[in-house]
Amino acid sequence: MITLFTTAKDFTGIYKTIQMNALKSWRFISSDIEIIIFGDSKGSKEAAKAIDAKFIPNIKYSPYCTPILSDLFYRADALAKYPIMTFINADIILPDNFLSVVKLASDTLNKFLMVGYRWDMNVRDSIDFINKSERVKFWDKVQKDSIKHACTGIDYFVYRKNQWKNIPDFIMGFPGYDNWMIWNARRKRISVLDASNLVRAIHQNHDVPTYMMHDKKTG
């Protein structure tokens, strides 16, 4: 089994809808998946309770009020009860076959990094993944309306626990860390697997927020 971890924006407006859609899709895959939500954004505690996830509020933040990537990874390694880790953005809906693809990778390779393109789509309504007809309707819409993003759209990273050391203090919300993850894996001769054709990860479109400085304390 695997541990998924993420950090979320405030659960307000459209972000409440799309982030809850993402979280519910992860939980629907399996009740045994461990999910960790890092950060004290508004509504995160309640969202974690709703999907039976761990809530870890105290993390390190940048001056832009966005989390520090290395802190998330190191804390996730320390907390996770499973050997396979997945860092994923909180607006990504995962398909039902995600676990089977991860199992194929982990059964085949000792060390690996599994990534994939995302598929962009406008989603404005809540999705009940437990309801079979609603779930089928959503994935039918995905086949018709989702658009494959460029190679810059990498929103999930699957790997073995404690695989990464000396991660730079990348700031979430700014570019660079996803390319570094792939570069670092290749530099260490760790197999990089492109699961784009197997995992249809859906990014729910939204505006890019403007990060404003305030008195958020580091954890």
Describe this structure in words.
This protein is α/β, with parallel strands linked by helices and 219 residues long. Helices cover 32% and strands 20% of the residues. The chain contains six helices and eleven strands. The protein has a seven-stranded mixed beta sheet, with helices on both faces. Strands 5-11-7-8 form a four-stranded mixed beta sheet. The longest helix has 17 residues. The protein is globular and about 45 Å long. The protein starts with a strand and ends in a 15-residue tail after the last strand.
Task: Give, in order, the helices and strands.
Answer: EHEHEHEEHEEHEEHEE
Kindly report the spatial arrangement of strands forming the biggest sheet: 3-2-1-4-9-6-10
Average pLDDT taken over every residue: 90
As a whole number of angstroms, the C-alpha radius of gyration is 16 Å
Indicate the structural class.
alpha/beta
Helix content: 25-40%
- Uncertain stretches of 5 or more adjacent residues: 210-219
Tally of alpha and pi helices: 6
- Profile the largest sheet: 7 strands, mixed
Q: Based on DSSP secondary structure assignment, what is the total number of beta strands? A: 11
Shape: globular
Strand-residue proportion: 15-25%
End-to-end span in angstroms? 29 Å
Short description:
Helix content is 32%, strand content 20%.
Q: Which short descriptors sum up this protein?
A:
four-stranded mixed beta sheet; 6 helices; single chain; globular
